[in-house]
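Sample entry (338 residues):
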Amino acid sequence: APPARPIFRRYLVAAAGMAFLICGGVFTLNALVDPLWYLGGNKLFPRNYPFNERVAKTNQFLAAGPASFDCLVFGSSRATLLDARRIHGHRCFNYSFSAGHVGEFIAFARYADAAGARPRLVIVSADAENFGERPARPPNVPPFIAVKQAPPGMAASYLSYDALGFSLATLMGDRFSARFYDGQLAGDVRPEMRSYQFRENVVAGMTGATYGGGAVADFAGLRAVFPAARVIGFVAPVSGAVIAMRQAEGSLPGLLDAIHGAAPVFDALYDFSVPSAITADPRNYYDDSHFHRFIYDMVAGVMNGERADFGLDVKTLSRTDYGRAYAMGLARTNGRGE
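Predicted structure, serialized as tokens:
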């Protein structure tokens, strides 16, 4: 009989070779799909679905050079559809991510500051969720952001089962996000999601809250990170139906109190949720919380000073006039424009 040791050695060599091939294959597939944007996004086709935007956006930001940006955008998934290239006179980076909250924006702003960003302009979404008095969910701030270190290495990230599962699902077209990022990593909406789809969970998450002014200190804290920057706040558009529901449940006055009370923190504060023909038309949004990219091009136009036919300039309004504009909008659109 042959010696046992050479057989065992051959087995180890074969097993090591197989493991190397598997790991190499996993890494190569993940690198090609590139869900965390270490290499600039998907190399197989120009569609990048959200995986972990907090990490992916940071990889994109660091690779491009933080000091090269003189404008930063912070916001939730709604703000990801604002094309930063539309902000004129600035090189702007959109650091928005799903379910983003102002308490998290502060941590990412401090990270950007430590990385060398010196923005002249900061744009931040001041949506209703920031003013809610519901029990706050724990902040979702990656540990490396909190301690201002480099993101996890590409090798470790792309040898994980999570990344592999995401990459395989991407190749099979089995992604459930309505949003994606194009080949330039600008946010957009999948063509098949262009028509409005009622989602009960979306509407439920936007109603039934009470609102207060506690977020004012958070917005002031964000501003303090970049004290020399001009800071623009904006309330992203939501469907007129949601505003009508807030009015019916009695939460709308408290929300308007909170937003109006936050206005002094900003150099400009625009509210695009006021009921209008735009927020009443379901062709402009794919669910009651997310409007299409072409609507955010209009938002950028307002911020650029190129148009004044959308939204409200909250800082120019008294609280009474602010509430009156909402009441008139609800009356004109019948909640939805029906």
